[in-house]
Amino acid sequence: MLKSTATKSITRLSQVYNVPAATYRACLVSRRFYSPPAAGVKLDDNFSLETHTDIQAAAKAQASARASASGTTPDAVVASGSTAMSHAYQENTGFGTRPIYLDMQATTPTDPRVLDTMLKFYTGLYGNPHSNTHSYGWETNTAVENARAHVAKMINADPKEIIFTSGATESNNMVLKGVPRFYKKTKKHIITTRTEHKCVLEAARAMMKEGFEVTFLNVDDQGLIDLKELEDAIRPDTCLVSVMAVNNEIGVIQPIKEIGAICRKNKIYFHTDAAQAYGKIHIDVNEMNIDLLSISSHKIYGPKGIGAIYVRRRPRVRLEPLLSGGGQERGLRSGTLAPPLVAGFGEAARLMKKEFDNDQAHIKRLSDKLVKGLLSAEHTTLNGSPDHRYPGCVNVSFAYVEGESLLMALRDIALSSGSACTSASLEPSYVLHALGKDDALAHSSIRFGIGRFSTEEEVDYVVKAVSDRVKFLRELSPLWEMVQEGIDLNSIKWSGH
């Protein structure tokens, strides 16, 4: 009976996707699925429509490449991820096939090796790391401290300076609220930028309600702050400067070292939101004079629900904790730690450091190919600085195409039109507005995120699919027709109704 039902389902689905039943059955066996093109869009017959996000296959392929380079065997490279690798795929959800994943700024897939590290803490090693009277607590505490050391090593910090939190949002709130509250009697001024993540901006606005003054620095059309404007904004009662290292929407890298030098000269605490930068660009908290730094695990192929904040000990940075409780984490973040998450976070940090050069080269190569392919179409613009940019984040505006419409047309590719945290809003990106982009261009922007498990075949498919579907949507636009006829849209006086 079950076999008969399965056969009928395969037959029905093969008809839906216009694929022979035998082929569809083979795809099910290999856990790879076909994704149909968007309605009204026809790709070339010789271009594969097979799309998937097969982390297992991608991880093995990269392991083989790296093994060849190092002279080891692929099996040795992936051995640590054997348990998780066997489950590193996603069956058909019932809502269509799994699209190509290019939204790495929202989150990254958990590395199979990270999952393998975590699994034992869900079974045998279940002790509370803060229980110091028996071996169950000692063994998990050892794992926590090992993870803390790995997280610290990535930024050349002391392990004692790493405080585990629930993620970068909590870390940012701890800084933006904790530092001003501690120094509120003498320091009432905060400096940040207009292009920060929402959690920083909202935390800053919350402090304004408590009587603090906040200066929001502008950025130029490249997304970079003016260091002279920063220096001019500093006041005797300034307690904190917060500037993110890598922007989550456009990938722009701010001059962190120069900002740190200015803050140190003026004896002001410098905080950077490094959720998108940690493990992806070079960061040395001592060399860059960073006093506080926020980290998120799920941006570096680690588990969700765990992050950290770096808090300098010499000279000591003081801040008021958000949570009261048992005094864990130097009294700055009370609450029982989750050893599986902490261990996974530590392993993810270790792998980021170990594979830093390989990841950089891989992502840079795919990014260059993606940017070249996307910008080859007319009326496309790369948002943000082309020179001071993390290559894994590519933000492109497609003029005369509405971004949300393009996302709907690209349902076989997982993308974003801005920050994942505010993607439910239909408002144009405030980051692109800060760069001077008008509503039309801000609305037509798409963010592409490339990561460790992205493949060249996926990039080829994306470039082709985006090109075809932008062309299709433009042909539906009366504005595009007017542009083709040589009409200057800025010269038109639109009548209001």
UniProtKB/TrEMBL annotation:
CC cofactor: pyridoxal 5'-phosphate
Coiled coil: none
Gene Ontology CC terms: L-cysteine desulfurase complex; mitochondrion; nucleus
Reactions catalysed, as given in the entry: (sulfur carrier)-H + L-cysteine = (sulfur carrier)-SH + L-alanine
Keywords: Iron, Iron-sulfur, Metal-binding, Pyridoxal phosphate, Transferase
GO biological-process terms attached to the record: [2Fe-2S] cluster assembly; tRNA thio-modification; tRNA wobble uridine modification
Keyword Transferase: yes
Record InterPro entries: Aminotrans_V_dom (IPR000192), Aminotrans_V_PyrdxlP_BS (IPR020578), Cys_deSase_IscS (IPR010240), PyrdxlP-dep_Trfase (IPR015424), PyrdxlP-dep_Trfase_major (IPR015421), PyrdxlP-dep_Trfase_small (IPR015422)
Protein EC: 2.8.1.7
Molecular function, one GO term: metal ion binding
Aminotransferase class V domain ranges (all copies): 100-462
Family: Belongs to the class-V pyridoxal-phosphate-dependent aminotransferase family. NifS/IscS subfamily.
HAMAP family on file: Cys_desulf_IscS
Function as written in the Swiss-Prot or TrEMBL entry: Catalyzes the removal of elemental sulfur from cysteine to produce alanine. It supplies the inorganic sulfur for iron-sulfur (Fe-S) clusters. Plays a role in both tRNA-processing and mitochondrial metabolism. Involved in the 2-thio-modification of both 5-carboxymethylaminomethyl-2-thiouridine in mitochondrial tRNAs and 5-methoxycarbonylmethyl-2-thiouridine (mcm5s2U) in cytoplasmic tRNAs.
Name the record gives this protein: Cysteine desulfurase, mitochondrial
Species: Saccharomyces cerevisiae (strain AWRI1631)
Lineage per the UniProt record: Eukaryota, Fungi, Dikarya, Ascomycota, Saccharomycotina
